[in-house]
Write a structure and sequence with these properties.
By secondary structure, the protein is of the alpha+beta class. The protein has one domain: Heat-shock cognate protein, ATPase (Actin, Chain A, domain 4, Alpha-Beta Complex). Helix content is 26%, strand content 15%. The protein is built from three helices and three strands; from the N terminus they run H-H-E-E-E-H. The protein has a three-stranded antiparallel beta sheet. The protein is elongated and about 40 Å long.
């Protein structure tokens, strides 16, 4: 057993692309079309929305979790964003754990 890190999943240069996927998915989930619209919903700290080591696996994908107050006002609560494995496969490096899914 070992702690799974981002480098076990993606190449470092792909982190910015995965971050963009997180933002796009959050906008889709919230039903908005821009970061300004997310700001209106209380997501005031979008620069902190990035791939972090705070993630877990489900049978459908990887979920990143952000504590209340980390990227949005506390009343929004914990923010979770799921990216499906099939969308993440394009970032799969040769030894990636993603190849197991």
């Amino acid at each position: 057993m070992k702690k799974v890190t981002l480098s076990d999943l993606f190449l470092n240069e792909d982190n910015s692309l995965v971050t963009q996927m997180l933002k796009t998915t959050l906008m889709e989930t919230e039903g908005v079309s821009s970061e300004d619209d997310l700001n209106q919903l209380g997501y005031y700290n979008l620069p902190n929305l990035s791939v972090t080591s705070n993630f877990y696996f489900t049978d459908k994908g990887i979920i990143w979790s952000y504590a209340p107050g980390e990227i949005a006002v506390t009343s929004v609560g914990e923010t979770t964003i799921m990216l499906p494995f099939e969308e993440l496969m394009r970032f799969n490096n040769e030894n990636s754990l993603l190849s197991r899914f």
